[in-house]
Every structure is written in C-alpha cells, then in structure tokens.
Amino acid sequence: MSSQEKPDAGRRRFLKAAGLASTAASTALIIDNTSANQTDETDETKEPLSPKGYQETEHVRRFLKTLRN
Known about the structure:
Blueprint: H1 9-42, H2 58-68
C-alpha cells in the first residue's frame, strides 16, 4: 500500500470550497427573491389590477332584461 500515491489534498479542498460557494450563492439568491416577494405583497398603496366580484355592465343588464320577459 505504500506504493500508492496519496490523493492531492489541495484539490479536495478546492472542490469542497467550490461546492460551499455555489450553495451559499444559491441560498443568497433564494433569500433575496423571497424578501422581494414579501415586500411587494405588503405594499398596500398599490391598487388591484382588476376589480373582483360581480360587475353590472351594459351587457349584463341586457342579458338580465331578456330573462325577465
């Protein structure tokens, strides 16, 4: 067994560091996106894009009028 070469420890440290760095960068991006989404949801000054619920328009009035006859 003494004839085998020892693995290069420097290369292993580099690969471990690269793996940790990529994990840290991914985590930072996820946290940043999550905090940005929470900020958008809590901003109450924005008006909704489209009103929700029943809206009586001219088209609806004509339809309801046909039902009464």
